[in-house]
Amino acid sequence: MIKSLQVKDYALIEHVNVEFGSGLNIITGETGAGKSILIDAMSLLLGDRASTEVVRKDAAKSVVEGIFDVELNTKVKKILEQNDIEFSPELIMRREISLKGSNRCFINDTPVSLSLIKDVGNLLVDLHGQHEHQSLLRTETHIEFLDEYGNFDGLLEEYSGLYRQLSKLTLELNSLKEQETILWEKKDIYAYQIKEIDNITPEDGEEEKLNEELNILENSEKLLELTSSVYELIYDSENSVNDQLGKIQNEIKELYGIDKSFSDVSSEIDSALTLINDISKFIRDYKSRVDIDPQHLGEIRDRLGALNLLKKKYGGSIKAVLKHRERIGREFDLAENYSENILKLEAQINELRKKSGAAAETISKKRKETAKKIQKDVKEALGFLGIPDSEFTVQINQIPADETSENYILVSGKCFKANHSGYDEVEFFISTNRGEDPKPLVKVASGGEVSRIMLALKTILAKNDKLPLLIFDEIDTGVSGRIAQKVGQALKSLAQYHQIISITHLPQIAALADHHYSVEKKLNEERVVSSISKLKDNERIREVAKLMSGEIITEASLNGAKELMGL
Questions:
Q1: Parallel/antiparallel/unpaired status of strands 110-112 and 103-107
Q2: Is the dihedral of CA 316, 318, 320, 321 positive or negative?
Q3: Which of 205, 279, 339, 373 lies at a 20 to 30 A Cα distance from 470?
Q4: Which residues contact 130 (CB under 8 A, 6 or more apart)?
Q5: In the chain, count of helices (H) and strands (E)?
C-alpha cells in the first residue's frame, strides 16, 4: 500500500504531502481543482512518459515521491535484489523532471532506469482511468487473472518447469545444429592440435620446476666450487671453524670449573658446535649431489623449448594451453559423436514436448471450467453496478504449430504453439448492451462504463488479485442515484482486500470513505495553486453535504449526509 505521496512544483501544485490509510481513500473537490493532477503525478511516479510542461512556472524541476509499504511483497523484493537495490519494508520511489530535459528516477535513493520504475510500479498499483496502468486493458494479463481466479498454481509450476527444460534443450539442439559445419571443418585441425599437445603432455606448474632445475644445472661448476670452499672453511682445513670452536669450548670449560657464571656461555658454545656440524653435513651432502651433466641440461632446455612453442601457439601460458586442450577435446568429441548427440537430444525434447503437452492440457481444462464461473460472476457484478444486459465471455484459443516452430508442445499427437503459461491464448470479451455481440475488452470505449467493468472484475477477483493498491479515477462518470450507491458498496467491499484510492463527485460514494481528502484551488500571491487536505469527521459531513446540495449547505443536506454516512 502507499503510505504517502509528495508532489512539488507539478502543474498547479506547489507542494503537497498527503498520507493515505488502508481501506477506502476518497478524494473529492470541484471540477478543475486539481484532483486529476494528483492522479497524473501518481502515473508519472509509476513510469508514465514525462514532459517539461508539467514543471510549475518559475520552478527548476518537478518532483514526485511515493513511500510504499512493501514488507510482505515478495515480488518487489525479488526484483530489487535482481537489480542490486537494498530491500527495506518501506520502498521510496521518486521521479524528477527538470526544465533542462533531464528525467531522473530513484528507488530507495538509488538511481534507476525508467523501465525499472515501471516494472516495480506494475507490482504495486493498478490505476484505472485514462492511464496506462489498467492491467485488464492489456490482453496479455487476462490469462494471469484467469489463473489467479482458478487458483491452480501447483499445476502451473509443474508445467513451467517442464517448459523451461524444453526451452533449454531446444536451444542446445539448435546451437549444436548451427555448429555442425564448423565442427566438421575444424575436426582435422583439432585432431592435429590435440596430437601436438598430447605428445608433449604439459603439466600445470611444470615450467617453474624446470626453470629452477635449469638454473641449478647451468651453475653446477660454480656450486661445486663454492660448496667445496665453504666445507673446507667450516670443517676440513687446519684452522677450520669447527677446530677453532673446539679449542674455545675446552677453554670455556676450564673457566667454568673456576667460575660457575660461565655456565650459560658454555652451553652456547656447545650449541654453536652442534650448528656448525649440521651446516657442514648439509654442505657435504649437497656437494656430493652436484651433477655436471651436459646431456641432462640439454634435455631440460629442449623440454622448455617445446613448452614455449605450445605457449606461443595456444594462449601464452601452460594454463591457457591446457584450457585450449580441454575445449578442443570437447569440440572434437562432439564432432566425432555428432549424430549420436543429435538423436539423443531430439529424443529428450520429444519426450518433454509430450509431458509439457499433457500438463498444458490439464491446465487448459481447468481454465475452461474457471472461465464459465468467471463469466457468470462478472455478469452478476455488472448487473449489480447498473449494467444489467451485459455479456462477458472468456475466449480460450490454441494456435496450431508445425515441427518447424520453436518450442511447440504435443497435445494428443498435435503440435501447438506454447509459452511459459501453456498453450492457451486468453482474452476477455464484453458487450454492455442487449443485442450486441461481445467485443474485445481492450477495445471497449473508455469512461464510466469501462470503469464499472473494471470494478466488477476487480470485485470478483479481489481475493486473488495480488496488487495491493487500486486507484479509480472518475469511476462515477455517467453514474447517479441507486447505481452510485452500488458502485460505492462495491468499492467498500473491494477495500477489504486492497487499499483503494478513488476520485468521485458523488455523495453516495464519498459517504463510505475510511479516509476522506478534499482538493481545493486557491489564489496565492496572484498565482493559482492546488492543495489537498485530509478531512476530520465534521469536515467530512460538510463535504458530503456540499456534494449533495452545492456550495450552499442546508440543514437538510447535512442531515442527508449524516444519513448516507450512517451517523
A1: antiparallel
A2: positive
A3: 373
A4: 446, 473
A5: 17, 17
Mean pLDDT of the chain: 86
Q: Residue 310's domain spans which residues?
A: 206-331
Give the pLDDT confidence score for residue 204 in this predicted structure.
Answer: 86
Task: Give 403's contacts (C-beta < 8 A, 6+ positions apart).
Answer: 415
228 lies in the same domain as 125: no
Tens of pLDDT, residues 340-357: 888 888 899 999 999 999
Q: Return the higher-pLDDT residue of 331 and 94.
A: 94
Count structural domains, the chain.
Answer: 2
How many Å apart are CA 227 and CA 509, to the nearest integer?
Answer: 105
Per-residue pLDDT of 237-272, as tens digits, reads 888 888 888 888 888 888 888 888 888 888 888 888
The C-alpha cell at 275 is: 650448528
Is residue 292 in a domain? yes
E strands, 387-476, in order: 391-397, 409-411, 414-416, 425-431, 439-440, 469-472
The pLDDT value given to residue 517: 93
Give the helix ranges, DSSP H, for 462-567.
Answer: 481-494, 507-510, 537-549, 555-565
| Count of Cβ atoms closer than 10 Å to residue 331 Cβ | 18
Q: Is the pTM of this model over 0.70?
A: no
Distance of CA 332 to the CA centre of its chain: 38
Q: Is residue 102 domain-shared with residue 221, that is, in the same domain? A: no
Own/partner long-range contacts of 546-553 (Cβ < 8 Å, ≥24 apart): 547/28, 547/505, 547/506, 547/507, 547/510, 548/507
pLDDT at 132 over 70: no
How far is C-alpha 176 from the geometric centre of its chain's CA atoms?
30
Q: Grid coordinates in use for 480? A: 447517479
Is residue 86 pLDDT above 80, yes or no?
Answer: yes
CATH of the domain at 476: 3.40.50.300
